[in-house]
Amino acid sequence: MRRFKRIELTMILLSGLWLMGCGPTSKKEQPLNVLMISIDDLNDWVGVLGTYPNVKTPNIDRLANEGILFTNAHCQAPICGPSRASLLSGLRPSTTGIYGQIKDQNLRKGSTLMESVLFLPEYFKNNGYKTIGVGKIFHNHAPEGNFEVSGGRIAGFGPRPEKRIKWNKEGTSTDWGAYPQEDSLMSDYNYAQWTKKQLEQKHDRPFFMAVGFIRPHVPWHAPKKWFDLYNPDKITLPSYLPNDFDDLPEISKKVAYKAMMPTTDWAIESGEWKNIIHAYLACVSFVDFQVGIVLDALQNSIYKNNTIVVLWSDHGYELGEKGSFGKQTLWSESTRVPLIFKLPGGKEKMKIHQAVELLDIYPTLLDLTGLDANPANEGETLAPLFTKPNNLSAVAITTYGKNNHSMVNNHYRYILYEDGSEELYDLQIDPGERNNLSQSLALDPVKKSMAIHLPRINAEWKTESNHTINEYFLKTSKQSKKKRK
Ligand SMILES: [Ca+2]
Ligand SMILES: [Ca+2]
């Protein structure tokens, strides 16, 4: 069985190589296209991952069941801009200094390193691919020149009601409730329809096509029919431990503090916790439906047998488990993401439990399409995992701010902060990361074995990348800005 899979994979790789002029040419061999679907702020609450019991994601589940589901995939930064900059540049945040939000036009500004980077769509473009994109791919849409055919990014995170429905804090779009009336008024609906039209067209070259959906990013607004999928009486709340922070170092609490977001205590007192969960689930099911439109369009197209599909979310999301709502922490709720590949025809079907990184997507896509590896990539191709046993001690790293790293394998999470403070969790007995074991001398060897993987470079904050809603980093980045002056 394994041998058979290896042969199939080799054939796929060879077909790519032939096309790129690296092997014998054959008119019968078709080039492999890439369809990349990204989702904004989708945590691990998708049906196939089994984290949250009642969520309805039939389309993402279908893709996972027809393809390769990574059950232990993690973002490199727990916030949109830096996570996407890392994935699309192939470089860690600690290498580029992009730790905070950054505008697309500033990605390269003032950095010799970033000037030399070929972003993932550019790499395909330089190798003869037609690049096509719509929606939120990078933090905004995409830097100039990445997409030959661009559908742009429509209406930010809107549409917006005249007045906020539930939450009115400045500096965040956070709000929840049924709005607007029709799917067709939602940006993601338009992104899905635009992508469908692209898949219905005849393209003269192999394509790299990307669609970036923005829900379930706040505001948690979606038409009422998506709320109606869930019975409010049956919505379960995630676990919460009011004294969970008692065993945390001070810096960890500062990093987790989000001034603009509801706290779990507030959500409990106001009775809004269930409503927030309900709205998040509605947005997840809404965006799942849009994913289905794109997958169906591919299935009905001439590209169904020669297109690789990859689906990812840029980071996770906390929904009250750790005292608040939001991302921007170094715990599982913020770092774990759905990651699914589907090879042409869906011939490889499996679940891979090894810890992997979104950084690995870039080299994996080059490997699967038979393009030359990009030596600048810091991630590793995941393609060998389709035929080899998993390495359960492999480590995935998430970085937030300079020199704060969270490392996770299939047994432990170890967090090491800039001031030397630590957290350590035994995920096999404590998947909720409640009991900080970092003071246990018996576990020193575990910490040491994970610390080997720490990035060797801890770049200074890139000047243009200092906007975050986290007060701790807002303060420190302002200080470092002053120092620079
Ligand atoms: Ca995001
Ligand atoms: Ca705790």
Give a nutshell description of this structure.
The protein has one domain (2-484): Alkaline Phosphatase, subunit A, CATH 3.40.720.10. It contains 15 helices and 17 strands.
- Unreliable segments (pLDDT under 50, ≥5 consecutive)? 1-28
Radius of gyration: 22 Å
> Count of DSSP E strands?
17
Note the total helix count: 15
Strand content: 15-25%
The total domain count is 1
According to CATH, the homologous superfamily is Alkaline Phosphatase, subunit A
Overall structural class, as computed from helix and strand content, comes to alpha/beta
**Named CATH architecture:** 3-Layer(aba) Sandwich
Largest sheet: 9 strands, mixed
Percent helix among the residues? 25-40%
Shape: globular
Mean pLDDT: 92
- If you consult CATH, what is the topology? Alkaline Phosphatase, subunit A
Small molecules in complex? calcium ion
Instruction: For the record, give the distance between the C-alpha atoms at the N and C termini, rounded to a whole number.
Output: 62 Å
CATH class descriptor name:
Alpha Beta
Report on the architecture of this protein.
The protein is an alpha/beta fold. The protein has one domain: 3-Layer(aba) Sandwich (Alkaline Phosphatase, subunit A). The chain contains 15 helices and 17 strands. Strands 1, 2, 3, 4, 6, 8, 11, 12 and 13 form a nine-stranded mixed sheet that branches. It has a four-stranded antiparallel sheet with strand order 14-15-16-17, covered by helices on one side. Strands 5-7 form a two-stranded parallel ribbon. Strand 14 and strand 15 form a beta hairpin. The N terminus is likely disordered. The structure holds calcium ion (2 copies). The site of one calcium ion has 6 residues, from loops.
